Amino acid sequence: MTTAKDIMHPGAKWVYREETLDRAAQLMRELNVGALPVSDQNERLCGIITDRDIVVKCVSKGHNPAETRCAELCEGTPRWIDADADVSQVLHEMESHQIKRIPVIENKRLVGIISEADVARNLTDDQVAEFVEHVYAR
Q1: How far apart are alpha carbons 73 and 19 in whole angstroms?
Q2: pTM of the predicted model, to two decimals?
Q3: pLDDT truncated to tens, each residue of the chain (138 aa)?
Q4: What angle in degrees, to the nearest 10, is found between the helix axes of 125-136 and 87-96?
Q5: Which domains does the chain have, with CATH numbers?
Q6: Cβ atoms of residues 94 and 100 within 8 Å
Q7: Which of 59, 10, 51, 57 is nearest to 33 (CA)?
């Protein structure tokens, strides 16, 4: 059985919800990623922030990323998957919520993240096609 832990990108990092968007952007640059899970003070997931969120929801509206907190852009119920979840559960979660990235949690700790690139690299052509159809076609 292939699990979330088998296909995830390990070493994901949190950004604290009270950090500014400019700090989140700096972390994204340092880590060479386009998204970061956002945590509360207890390292519990409260959302994900993307580079696109920073541009579209902050910069393009004339807001200052040095004065805007990550928490201000976190919307909706945060989605995550357990490290031991079967890959079919991973796909179901991503497809049903039309999300392109999902944090992987083990023992209440962030251990990685699964992106659409991880899906493409690790799954069959049929699984990737189904993923694309459900996430992008709607």
Answers
A1: 12
A2: 0.87
A3: 899 999 999 988 999 999 999 999 999 999 999 999 999 998 889 999 999 999 999 999 999 999 999 999 987 788 999 999 999 999 999 999 989 999 999 998 999 999 988 988 988 888 888 888 888 876
A4: 20
A5: 4-136 (3.10.580.10)
A6: yes
A7: 51
